[in-house]
Design goal:
Length: 126
């Protein structure tokens, strides 16, 4: 496996952890605070870095089913983070998350978990 792809796989795991901490905290406490925003933003940025590294380190075509799932999961994740920032700037520090936002966060995290594990399975089966 290419070293860039290995580093990308490590960084995607860090992204998975950061985004997971943010999502679970948001769903559990229903508050959009600085910690949630910090971990959401870290998750998005680390995911972007990991995707770039894995594309650069990949020998094959990035336009695969997993590539599509990964890109879609990234955009779903990005929309959730932007939505959190928008709520935070509109209503201030430690504001309550609405029901629709909680539902979106759960769905986005679930979708991201599916994309993460399909990528892991691809690496294992190669």
């Amino acid at each position: 496996m290419n070293p860039l792809a290995i580093i990308g796989a490590f960084v995607i795991t860090l992204s998975f952890l950061a985004y997971g901490i943010a999502s679970i905290s948001l769903v559990r406490f229903r508050i959009i605070g600085r910690i949630v925003l910090l971990f959401l933003t870290m998750g998005v940025l680390l995911d972007l870095i990991a995707i770039s590294l894995m594309i650069l380190g990949s020998k094959g075509n990035p336009f695969t089913l997993h590539g599509f799932l990964g890109a879609l999961a990234f955009f779903v994740m990005l929309i959730g983070a932007v939505w959190c920032w928008k709520i935070y700037f509109s209503f201030g520090r430690d504001c309550r998350a609405g029901k629709n936002h909680i539902i979106y966060t759960k769905a986005a995290y679930l979708f991201w978990v599916v994309a993460y594990f399909t990528g892991s399975l691809i690496v294992i089966w190669r």
